[in-house]
Design brief:
The complex is a heterotrimer of chains A (102), B (402) and C (212). Chain B is mostly helical. Chain B has 13 helices and no strands. Chain C folds into three domains: 1-88, NADH-ubiquinone/plastoquinone oxidoreductase chain 6, subunit NuoJ (Four Helix Bundle (Hemerythrin (Met), subunit A)); 91-134, no CATH class; 136-212, no CATH class. In chain C, helix 1 (5-26) packs antiparallel against helix 2 and helix 2 packs antiparallel against helix 3. Chain C starts with a helix and ends with a helix. Classes of the chains: A mainly alpha (102), B mainly alpha (402), C mainly alpha (212).
Chain lengths: 102, 402, 212
C-alpha cells in the first residue's frame, strides 16, 4: 500500500492551499470555500491515521463524521451571514466589512 | 474475464483494470441502447392512456420510430450562442447521463452478477441523485440565460427537498435487511419488503417521481409553461442527452424499486439457474416503471409551492415517523436478527404490514380532518361573500411566513 | 513507492484533489471556483475510498458535493459580483510565503526526509506501509458507536442540536424584515423595523468612502 506519509503530504498540501486561499482572496464566499478545503484536509489526515494506525478502533471515522457535521453547520451559518451582509452593504468583498476596524 | 486476462500474461492489477473497464463499457452501452426501446414503450403506453394508438407507422408497431427520432436529434444543429460558458455548458448533459448510469453499477442482476458489490450501496444511490442536481445547476448557469437559471434554481430546490424523504424511505429496507449493500438487501429479502412496508413504497414512489422531475412534479421542464426550464438553450444532441438521462432515470427508479422492495432477482428456480434472476428483475422493474408512467399520465401538474409544501410539510415528517415505527417494531419483534427463510420472515413481515396499514389509516384520517377544516373555511368565506361582505384574497398576506 | 495500480489510483485522486484546490484559490470566476471545489471534494471522496472508508466517501459526496457545494453556488448566485476585479488582495505574497513555509514545515515532519538528512529528533516519519486489515463490519460498528452511551452518544446528540441551531439560525437570518406586516406578530416586527432605518443611513457614507 501507499506509505502513510504520502496521504499526510496530500493533506498538508491541501491545508496550505486552503490557507493561501483564506489569506489572499477578497471575496467572502471564496474565503469560505478555502475554509472547506482546510476542513477536508483535516479529514483526510484523520482517516489516514485511522486506517494506518488502529483500523479496529472506529473513533477515527467517528471523528471524521463529526467534522462533516461541523462543516455543514458552519457553511450554512456563514452563507446566511454573507447574504445578510450583502443585503446591508451591497458588497461581498471582505475588505469592505470594516466598520469595527480601528 | 479477469482470469482469462491473467492467463494471457498480464499482471493482476492490470488484468482487473482492463476487465472492469470492459464491464463498464458493456453496462453503459446496454443502458443507453435500452433507452431507445424505453422511449418506444413510454410513447405506446402514454398513447393508450390517452385513448389513442401511438406511433405505428415507422416499422412494425412503430418500433423504428425511436431510431428515427434518435437519428433526427443527432443531425440537428448544435446552437451555442454568444456568452455561453463553453466547458460548463457542454459537461452538464454528460453529468446528467452519468448520474443515472452510475446507478446501474450497484444493481444486482443475478445472485452472482453485480457491477460492484459496494458495502455502502444505498449511500452510493443517494450520491448519484446529488450529482444530477449539480448537472442541472451547471446547465442553468452555462446557458447564460436568466430564465434558464431560475428554472435551474427551482429544479435544484425540488431535487434537494425530495432527497430527504428518499433517503428516509431507503433506510427502511436497510433496517429490515441489516445491510447497506444492495446485493445484501436482496439476499435478506425472503419476504418482499413491499409486503412488510407498503407505506415506505408509497413514500419512495412519490419522492422518486419528484426526484425524476416527472409529472405531477414536472414543473422543472413544464413544456407548456416554461418551454424547457433549465434545458431551454440546449438543442441537438445535448438536448437528446438530457432526454435520454430522464427516461433512463425513470426506468432506473423502477429498477431500484424492484431491488429494494420487490425482491430483486428473487423468484422460483433462481438457485439452479442464476440467469433467471436477471429475467425476474427485468419483469419486476416494469411494475415500478408502469406505476411511474401511470401517475404521469393521469395526474395534473402541481404548482411549485404546493410541491415544496408536500415535500417538507408532509413527506418528511411522514417518512421520519415511518422509519421510527418500522425500526421500533422490527427491533421489538424477537428473532429478526437472523432470518434465513420465508417461514421465519413471514411472521414479522405480517406484523409490520398491520402496523403500516394502521399508519396509513391514521395519516388518511389526519388528511381528511385537514381537508374537512379547509373546506369548511372556504364554504364559510363563500357564504360571507354571498351575504355582501368584502372579497378577501385567499392567498396569505405578503410578508407573513415568506 | 512502488508502481502498482493502487499507487497510480492514489496519484490520480491526489492530483484531482490538489489541482482542484489550486484552481479554487486562483480562479477569477467564482462559479468556476465552486465547480473546482466540487472536483476537489470528489478527489477527497476518492481518497477516502482508497483508505477503506467507503461510508465516509459516500457521505462526503452526499453532504459536501450534494449539499454544501450547492449551498455555496446558491449564495454565489444571490450575491452577484463583478468578476472583472482581481481575485487576490494586497497581501497575497505574504500569504503565499506563509503557505509555502507551513507546507515545508509539515512535510519535513511527516516524511522521512529529515531522518535521511541526518537531523535527529525533528520529524516523526510515518513510513507505515502495511496496516492491519479493517474489520468487516466497521460500518455497523460506526452506527453502534454513535448510539453507545460509553462511546459517542453524547457528541452525536450535541451534533444534532448544533445542526438544528444552525438550521434555525440560518433561516432566521435571511428572512426579510417584516415592515409591511399586518399579521399579529407585533413584537418581532417592532424590534426588526426599528434598527433597520438608522442603519441604512449610516451605511451609505461609509460605502461611498470605501469605494475610492
Amino acid at each position: 500500500m501507499v506509505p502513510l506519509y504520502m496521504y499526510l503530504l496530500v493533506s498538508a498540501a491541501l491545508f496550505c492551499i486552503g490557507l493561501y486561499g483564506v489569506l489572499s482572496r477578497r471575496n467572502a464566499i471564496a474565503i469560505l470555500m478555502s475554509i472547506e478545503l482546510m476542513l477536508n484536509a483535516a479529514n483526510i489526515n484523520l482517516v489516514a491515521f485511522w486506517r494506518y494506525g488502529q483500523p479496529e478502533n472506529i473513533s477515527g471515522q467517528a471523528f471524521a463524521a463529526f467534522v462533516f457535521v461541523v462543516a455543514a453547520a458552519e457553511v450554512a451559518v456563514g452563507l446566511a451571514l454573507i447574504i445578510n451582509i450583502y443585503r446591508q452593504r451591497r458588497s461581498v468583498v471582505a475588505d469592505d466589512v470594516d466598520l469595527m476596524k480601528w | 474475464m479477469t482470469d482469462f486476462l491473467i492467463d494471457l500474461g498480464l499482471s493482476r492489477g492490470l488484468a482487473v483494470l482492463i476487465a472492469k473497464t470492459l464491464g463498464v463499457f458493456a453496462l453503459a452501452t446496454i443502458g443507453l441502447v435500452w433507452t431507445i426501446f424505453l422511449i418506444w414503450i413510454e410513447r405506446k403506453v402514454a398513447a393508450r392512456f390517452q385513448d389513442r394508438v401511438g406511433p405505428n407507422r415507422a416499422g412494425p408497431f412503430g418500433l423504428v420510430q425511436s431510431f428515427a427520432d434518435a437519428i433526427k436529434i443527432i443531425l440537428k444543429e448544435d446552437i451555442m450562442h454568444r456568452g455561453v460558458d463553453r466547458w460548463v455548458f457542454n459537461i452538464a448533459p454528460l453529468l446528467s447521463v452519468m448520474a443515472v448510469l452510475m446507478l446501474w453499477v450497484v444493481i444486482p442482476w443475478t445472485p452472482t452478477l453485480v457491477g460492484v458489490d459496494l458495502s455502502v450501496g444505498v449511500v452510493y444511490v443517494i450520491a448519484a441523485g446529488a450529482i444530477s442536481a449539480i448537472a442541472i445547476l451547471m446547465a442553468g448557469w452555462g446557458s447564460n440565460n436568466k430564465f434558464a437559471l431560475l428554472g435551474a434554481f427551482r429544479a435544484v430546490a425540488q431535487l434537494i427537498s425530495y432527497e430527504v424523504p428518499t433517503v428516509l424511505a431507503l433506510l427502511v429496507p436497510v433496517v429490515l435487511a441489516g445491510s447497506m449493500s444492495l446485493q445484501g438487501i436482496v439476499r435478506e429479502q425472503h419476504v418482499m419488503y413491499a409486503l412488510a412496508a407498503p407505506l415506505t413504497v408509497l413514500i419512495f414512489i412519490i419522492a422518486s417521481m419528484a426526484e425524476l422531475g416527472r409529472a405531477p412534479f414536472d414543473i422543472l421542464e413544464a413544456e407548456s409553461e416554461l418551454v424547457a426550464g433549465y434545458q431551454v438553450e440546449y438543442s441537438g444532441f445535448k438536448f437528446g442527452l438530457f432526454y435520454v438521462g430522464e427516461f433512463l432515470h425513470a426506468y432506473t427508479v423502477g429498477l431500484t424499486m424492484a431491488v429494494f422492495f420487490l425482491g430483486g432477482w428473487r423468484g422460483p428456480f433462481v438457485d439452479d439457474l442464476p440467469a433467471l434472476g436477471a429475467v425476474y428483475l427485468f419483469l419486476k422493474s416494469f411494475i415500478g416503471y408502469f406505476i411511474v408512467l401511470w401517475i404521469r399520465m393521469t395526474v395534473p401538474r402541481v404548482r411549485v409551492d404546493q410541491m415544496l409544501d408536500l415535500g417538507w410539510k408532509f413527506l418528511v415528517p411522514l417518512s421520519l415517523l415511518n422509519l421510527v415505527v418500522v425500526a421500533l417494531v422490527w427491533k421489538i419483534y424477537p428473532g429478526t436478527d437472523s432470518i434465513d427463510s420465508f417461514s421465519e420472515a413471514i411472521g414479522p413481515s405480517l406484523v409490520l404490514l398491520v402496523v403500516n396499514i394502521l399508519m396509513i389509516l391514521g395519516v388518511g384520517a389526519v388528511l381528511r380532518e385537514q381537508g374537512r377544516r379547509e373546506r369548511e373555511r372556504i364554504e364559510a368565506k363563500q357564504r360571507a361573500l354571498e351575504l355582501g361582505a368584502e372579497p378577501v384574497s385567499d392567498v396569505a398576506p405578503a410578508g407573513a411566513g415568506r | 513507492m512502488e508502481l502498482t495500480v493502487e499507487s497510480l489510483v492514489f496519484l490520480l485522486f491526489s492530483l484531482i484533489t490538489l489541482g482542484g484546490g489550486l484552481l479554487v484559490v486562483t480562479t477569477r470566476n467564482l462559479f468556476h471556483g465552486a465547480l473546482f471545489l466540487m472536483l476537489s471534494l470528489f478527489g477527497v471522496a476518492g481518497l477516502f475510498a482508497l483508505l477503506t472508508a467507503p461510508f465516509l466517501a459516500g457521505i462526503q459526496v452526499v453532504v459536501y458535493i450534494g449539499a454544501i457545494a450547492i449551498l455555496i453556488i446558491f449564495a454565489i448566485m444571490l450575491t452577484p459580483q463583478v468578476t472583472a476585479t482581481r481575485p487576490s488582495n494586497n497581501q497575497w505574497i505574504a500569504a503565499l510565503v506563509v503557505a509555502v513555509v507551513l507546507f515545508a514545515l509539515l512535510a519535513s515532519i511527516v516524511t522521512p526526509l529529515m531522518d535521511e538528512l541526518g537531523v535527529e529528533g525533528w520529524g516523526a516519519s510515518f513510513t507505515e506501509t502495511d496496516p492491519p486489515p479493517v474489520p468487516e463490519d466497521s460500518i455497523a460498528d460506526l452506527g453502534a458507536a454513535f448510539v453507545d452511551p460509553q462511546r459517542f452518544m453524547l457528541p452525536f446528540e450535541v451534533a444534532s442540536i448544533l445542526l438544528m441551531a444552525a438550521l434555525v439560525g440560518a433561516v432566521m437570518m435571511v428572512r426579510p424584515s417584516r415592515e409591511d406586516d399586518e399579521a399579529p406578530a407585533p413584537v418581532e416586527a417592532a424590534e426588526v423595523a426599528e434598527p433597520a432605518p438608522p442603519r441604512a443611513d449610516a451605511v451609505e457614507p461609509v460605502l461611498v468612502e470605501s469605494q475610492e
